[in-house]
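DM between two lab members

TW: hey, do you still have the HNH endonuclease entry open?
JB: yeah, one sec
JB: this one, 168 aa:
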Amino acid sequence: MISQNELKKLIHYDPETGIFTWIVNGLNRRKGREAGNVCPFHGYVRIGINRKLYKAQHLAYLYMTGEYAENVDHRNGIRHDNRWCNIRKCTIQQNNMNMPIRSDNKSGAPGVNWYENRKKWRVTLRIDGKFKSLGYYSDFELAALVSEEARDKFFGDFSSSKRGTDFR
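TW: and the structure you got?
JB:
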């Protein structure tokens, strides 16, 4: 694992832009050039240092705090936006709280699905690994609102409804 000291000898991090630039020349790097690439599979910026790939958000956290955090979240959900104001340490559970809607979600609202037996919209929320039922609703808009309010209440700033906020 790289230390903050070692990192600062190799790379400069601009907290306003979230961009890393090389301070020294080396194999496949030039002083002053931007460090890292956006991975086409998951969208995170990755930077190779000493034959190890690091996600840029982890390096930004290390650069600014001196601590290497195992879990780092992008507040606005944009995986390549590594501005300091957009990065925060989190737990795995907190990071999972603000994931985008799954591709197999048929309702379009997180935590809301059609329950055929009752012919109503069912609202559920996963808290500490357990599903909590928040009721059944005839009206989809009401079910979506109940889901959003519950996520805001239980997940706070990590709620997926907080995404899209500009963190300048």
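TW: got it. The mean pLDDT is 89. The helical segments are 4-10, 56-65, 92-97, 140-155.
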